[in-house]
């Protein structure tokens, strides 16, 4: 009796027919735009737009691609071409164009789009639109207009979120009105919105720019008092300000605060702190921070090691000198082994 062989998997389960439509075209355009290949994305659009009629997402994807590429002129040309093809812009389209204009300093052009948007039916300005315009007002240092736009949000039934408050705060900082910026920060706390790293970093940068150490201290105290965990950029800013102004003790306080929160500061923060501490004669404190980073599983930079090594040589602390050399060798060996295993 002949054996009955089972049919191969391909025969038993026929392949599904693959289709290509506007959704797939949109995904392809997004992929090209994400890699900055906007010209190729536009060429694909022109090649397939008749076969696969585009929708609003198609046009907005390309508008966003031109905006991210910083090519406002190409964005305008494509937009007007799209309108001729029957494209009806929505709030996303307007927001993308506004953002492109604002980043080029064309704030008045962005405001014209707001007026145009308000004249259209079913195209009310959104939270993102207002936030974008407030940010644009900050770029041209027009804090008064930024505040007006912020107030218009409430009048239009739009509730400002943390991003809108941060944009307003940034506008005040760019206009060097730090007091009003601090008032916005207090408003956020009073409303229960909460501050994030953008909030703190914005105010710290503003005070750093005008050399107001007291202002920096106020913001830093507020941050630590609330138990907030700053991101690397804010940590670096504070560490540089403290150490460059002969207050490495405050940098050490920040270091201990971060470790107490279970966070290992960036290696470059250790560079700044070790240099600042050693220059003020606090070599043992610098050694302690160096050792703590290693104990937390991080390898200090060669710069931090060389600074500490140099000061131990001057003080003839040969035992400590040998200790940090052995610690560096051990961590570098472990790092090398991890790289080999990953390869």
UniProtKB/TrEMBL annotation:
This protein's UniProt keywords: Repeat, Transit peptide
Residue stretches spanning the membrane: none
Repeat positions for PPR: 90-120, 161-195, 196-230, 266-300
Pfam families assigned: PPR, PPR_2
PANTHER family: PENTATRICOPEPTIDE REPEAT DOMAIN CONTAINING PROTEIN-RELATED (PTHR47942:SF16), TETRATRICOPEPTIDE REPEAT (TPR)-LIKE SUPERFAMILY PROTEIN-RELATED (PTHR47942)
The protein's name: Pentacotripeptide-repeat region of PRORP domain-containing protein
């Amino acid at each position: 009796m002949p054996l009955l062989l089972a049919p191969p998997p391909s025969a038993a389960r026929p392949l599904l027919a693959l289709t290509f439509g506007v959704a797939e075209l949109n995904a392809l355009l997004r992929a090209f735009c994400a890699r900055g290949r906007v010209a190729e994305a536009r060429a694909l659009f022109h090649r397939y737009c008749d076969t696969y009629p585009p929708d609003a997402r198609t046009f907005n994807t390309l508008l966003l691609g031109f905006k991210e590429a910083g090519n406002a002129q190409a964005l305008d040309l494509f937009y007007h071409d799209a309108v001729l093809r029957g494209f009806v812009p929505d709030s996303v389209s307007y927001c993308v164009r506004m953002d492109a204009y604002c980043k080029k300093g064309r704030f008045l052009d962005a405001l014209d789009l707001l007026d145009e948007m308000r004249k259209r039916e079913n195209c009310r300005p959104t939270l993102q639109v207002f936030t974008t315009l407030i940010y644009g007002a900050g770029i041209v240092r027009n804090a008064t207009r930024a505040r007006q736009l912020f107030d218009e949000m409430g009048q239009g039934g739009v509730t400002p979120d943390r991003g809108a408050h941060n944009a307003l705060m940034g506008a005040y900082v760019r206009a060097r009105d730090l007091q009003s910026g601090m008032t916005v920060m207090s408003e956020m706390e009073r409303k229960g919105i909460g501050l994030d790293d953008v909030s703190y970093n914005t105010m710290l940068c503003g005070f750093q720019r005008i050399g107001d150490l007291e202002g920096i201290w106020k913001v830093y105290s507020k941050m630590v008092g609330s138990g907030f965990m700053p991101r690397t950029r804010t940590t670096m800013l504070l560490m540089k300000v403290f150490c460059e102004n002969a207050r490495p003790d405050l940098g050490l306080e920040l270091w201990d605060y971060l470790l107490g929160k279970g966070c290992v500061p960036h290696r470059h923060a250790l560079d700044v702190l070790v240099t600042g501490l050693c220059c003020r004669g606090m070599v043992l404190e610098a050694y302690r921070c160096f050792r703590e980073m290693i104990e937390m599983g991080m390898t200090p930079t060669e710069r931090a090691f060389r600074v500490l090594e140099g000061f131990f040589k001057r003080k003839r602390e040969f035992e400590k000198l040998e200790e940090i050399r052995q610690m560096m060798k051990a961590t570098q060996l472990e790092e090398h082994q991890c790289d080999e295993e990953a390869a």
